[in-house]
From TrEMBL:
Superkingdom of this protein's organism: Bacteria
Name by which UniProt lists this protein: Glycinamide ribonucleotide synthetase
Keywords from the UniProt entry: ATP-binding, Ligase, Nucleotide-binding, Purine biosynthesis
Pfam families (alphabetical): GARS_A, GARS_C
GO molecular function: ATP binding; phosphoribosylamine-glycine ligase activity
One Gene Ontology biological process: purine nucleotide biosynthetic process
Similarity remark: Belongs to the GARS family.
SMART domains: GARS_A, GARS_C
PROSITE patterns: GARS (PS00184)
Domain Phosphoribosylglycinamide synthetase C-domain as annotated: residue spans: 94-187
Keyword Translocase: no
Cofactor (UniProt): Mg(2+); Mn(2+)
Length: 196
């Protein structure tokens, strides 16, 4: 929703390609994931916050839900320096992810709480991605601060948000919490509302 085709091209021209060319010019050949953490201003200009040589969490979960190609085949092509010979296929619909966190996060939080409702959530459209979970006595329990990410697609950002919150509502454990405002700016943009 923030990254239109025009903004995407601007990010590629101003951030990604100069970074990749700069690394190559310095003799640093890189094969892997390069995560650019960006802020996009109201005019659609990117500002770099950080670069990571890994997937971003939880940003990756909505992206992975849209990926229709095999991630394994894409990685193998990158390792074989043949990524230019294949094209990733994407679901064009918006996706949205909601992090379900353990009580106390980002400070101290309890571990070992039994997570209920995963089977019920699996009956809905979308996917629950595990992050801070463990298997204990054949039950899924909390083992980290960011425990799960309820992620869903939709025909609009508003619809993706509804679907993701429906998933999140099926899951619970003692101390579980999540933000109730994920996607509100994108939904306002989608509706043409002023964001001042």
């Amino acid at each position: 929703p923030v990254v239109t085709a025009e903004v995407h091209q601007r990010v590629m021209d101003l951030v990604i390609w100069p970074t990749v060319r700069g690394m190559a010019d310095e003799g640093n050949v890189y094969t892997g994931f390069l995560y650019a953490g960006l802020m996009i201003d109201k005019a659609g200009n990117p500002k770099v916050i950080e670069f990571n040589c890994r997937f971003g969490d939880p940003e990756t979960q909505p992206v992975m839900l849209r990926l229709q190609s095999s991630l394994v085949l894409l990685v193998e092509a990158a390792l074989a320096q043949a990524l230019d010979k294949i094209e990733a296929q994407w679901d064009p619909r918006p996706s949205l992810g909601i992090v379900l966190a353990a009580g106390g996060y980002p400070g101290d939080y309890a571990k070992g709480a039994v997570i209920e409702g995963l089977d019920a959530a699996a009956q809905l459209e979308g996917k629950i991605f595990h992050a801070g979970t463990a298997l204990q006595d054949e039950r899924v329990v909390t083992s980290g601060g960011r425990v799960l990410c309820a992620t869903a697609l939709g025909d609009s950002v508003g619809n993706a948000q509804e679907n993701a919150y429906a998933l999140a509502a099926k899951v619970d454990w003692q101390g579980c919490f999540y933000r109730k405002d994920i996607g509100y700016r994108a939904i306002a943009r989608e509706r043409g509302e002023d964001q001042e």
